[in-house]
Amino acid sequence: MATTLTKVDVVVVGLGWTGGIIAAECAKAGLKVIGLERGRKRGTEDFQQIHDEYRYAVRYELMQDVAKETITIRNNRKMPALPMRQMSSFLLGDGLGGSGTHWNGHTWRFYPYDFQIKTMTDEKYGPNKLSSDYLLQDWGVTYDEMEPYFYKYDQTAGISGEDKNPFWGKRAQDFPTPPMKRTPILKKFEGATQSLGYSPFMLPSANLSEAYTNPDGEVINACQYCGFCERFGCEYGAKTSPEITVIPTATKTGNFETKFHANVVEVIKSGNKVTGVRYLDTESGEEFIQEAEVVVLASYVMNNAKLLMVSNIGQQYDPETGKGTLGKNYCYQILPGANGYFEEQMNTFMGAGALGMTIDDFNADNFDHSDLDFIHGGSISITQTGYRPIETNPIQQGTPTWGAEFKKNSIYNYTRSLSIGTQGASMPHKENYLSLDTKYKDVYGLPLLQMTYNFTDQDRALHKFITEKTVNIMKEMGAKTVEGKAPITDYDIVGYQTTHNTGGTIMGASPENSVVNPFLQHWDAENLFVVGAGNFPHNGGYNPTGTVAALAYRSAEGIIKYSKSGGSLV
Q1: Domain Glucose-methanol-choline oxidoreductase N-terminal spans what residues (predicted)?
Q2: Which residue of 121, 267, 330, 555 is surrounded by the most CB atoms within 10 Å?
């Protein structure tokens, strides 16, 4: 029997970046907010032993326990979907801060083209540039409308960067802090790309170049360039994350309370509204109902979609008929690139998660696609994240993956190899979607989320094109041997690729083509908001965090307005 708790103004499910932003903004506005986090409390003081690579990077200390809850994966509808038994292709965060704790800190704004991709593509290339199997649509909001929210996040996080990219959307104000260090490795990339006629610039970073106090009074320290960012928390408090910014801000108001080990299993709906959520205390086994005037789902992409599905809110997407929106437009990313092997030694063991340099000459629609069989592109970067000794074993193609020759080559190449990588855009396809598995359940008795996904012809063409560009850059950098990434065939979950999953709870201007409106308010329940990268109708050529955060700030503004007057925000 569930215990019903005192009703609050807002209940937020998940306390990563999106949940933290919503909680902070609503609490500052005077609303009483409860945050439900299924993981444990943690913060800077917990990361003093964070350089234990085996514990954090190999055994995934900060990640979700897939023995309790995971997803099933298949490439197409004819295949059986099987559970992901260990973290591999992507890493699902767990605990306070979520993926915002173990991220690298790359902080981008999606392009104006991204927000109006259907309109702009049709206007320039005609409506048949891609086949009707690709489900392109505008987002229901423009870059210009989003720009103030992008900058609000920049200020909160203290983002370090430089406004030197000639392609991206116009910024109303410069970055809050200067760019990170231009190391010799980055200068090598800078010189090569400039000689090829491209426009390099420092990657916008949430590893701060200098100490910074944000508008809410939270202090973020300067990066120490230790090289332990991705999969790790920051023991210096220098990698901006929710637990050192928005969560303390919310707590200081006195209007915010967090409950840990609170796993939400249902959103309770009545008519055209929701009344609260049902959750389990994973330590005591007790069951609770937290009632609220507004419910905000701010968990990871997968969990937001799953909660709507198990709660029977919205119409599940059917690839056979094309009807329904829930689960539709799931997108991943592609990762073109090249490895280079040099004669000289470099300090590859030093770095930071977002220490890098980028070109956008082949991102978005910054180049002519008229004679190409794909759209969009990707940001091409060299990053100096710090080669950690256990998992970094750079070897040339044809080298055995074990034994004496493997050891010799990996040791030799450890300080003599570099990689150029790309965040390649992913376009939605009618056969790529999320649904509930009919066979497997989690430890709480709920169906597992099922992912049906494979790379498409669009992905393969873009991957080939961008890889050729990265090979040319690496040659220009002076590598003695250059190896481009192999062409992609079918998607395989084996081997880490990127945690940048998007779609499934997409936004748009109409309930016919989206789950939520441009304020991320659910079309079928006016007091339910669903916030995260699941709102993206497609995935861009960047990491999603900056765009996710901007959408969260805009949604928070809508939630506060709704709390005063109710009704649809559009």
Answers
A1: 221-329
A2: 555
